[in-house]
Amino acid sequence: MRVVLASSNSGKLRELAALLEPLGWALVSQRELGIESPPETGATFLENALIKARHAARAAHLPALADDSGIEVDALGGAPGVWSARYAGERATDGENLAKLLEALRGVAPERRTARYRCVIAYVGSADDPRPILGEGSWEGRIAAAPRGNGGFGYDPIFIPLHTGTSGGAPRTAAELAPREKAAGSHRARALAAFRSHLEPAGPRNP
């Protein structure tokens, strides 16, 4: 089934396409369809996921899947949260966001750098679908002192998940995990598992 992914993030497309392949879904990025992202005006990950999914479904005339995710740092009162992708500004790069977060945590002791990734996935069969299918997941960890690793995207180079082993004697960041390791326990994988548990026996609704 062809479903538009309400994101232009190539990293999200790769991760979700691999996780949804067993369902027989063919994800197409909204960028491929010439759809621009809407303003993310929601106060929560859930609100933003639904805004993006409904916008993409309306523009593409297809079922749509969206995820809204971000990182919450306890020492910063849960920031950046829903502002994760725009933490250093509306057009900020991953590197700029990482630099701002590390600067905000300058001098904070390792034991106080606890954090978590959160993700909400939303599926709508049409723009006005009154019963969206949802899934939520979180991934606990802490923030590293400096970026490490070349995999993943977003805050992965500075996020150290719990119980992931070490590399060179240091706990591994999400960017140092193999794709299969990340897929086994990430916030997005957990949100998708919850999402799949809510699917109707006959599969997702079409418009």
Explain this structure.
The protein has 207 residues and is α/β, with parallel strands linked by helices. It has a single domain (2-197), classed as Maf protein (Alpha-Beta Complex). 27% of the residues lie in helices and 23% in strands. The protein is built from five helices and eight strands, in the order βαβαβαβββββαα. It has helices at 10-20, 45-60, 94-104, 179-185, 187-197; strands spanning 2-5, 26-29, 64-73, 114-124, 133-143, 159-161, 166-167, 170-171. The protein has a six-stranded mixed β-sheet with strand order 2-1-3-4-5-6. A two-stranded antiparallel sheet has the order 7-8. The radius of gyration is 17 Å and the shape is globular. The model has no long low-confidence stretch (mean pLDDT 91).
Percent range for β-strand residues: 15-25%
Global structural class: alpha/beta
Mean pLDDT: 91
The SSE string, one letter per element, is: EHEHEHEEEEEHH
β-strand number? 8
Report the end-to-end length measured between terminal Cα atoms: 12 Å
Major beta-sheet overview: 6 strands, mixed
| Count of alpha/pi helices | 5
CATH topology: Maf protein
Question: Architecture, CATH level 2?
Answer: Alpha-Beta Complex
Overall 3D form: globular
Count of domain modules: 1
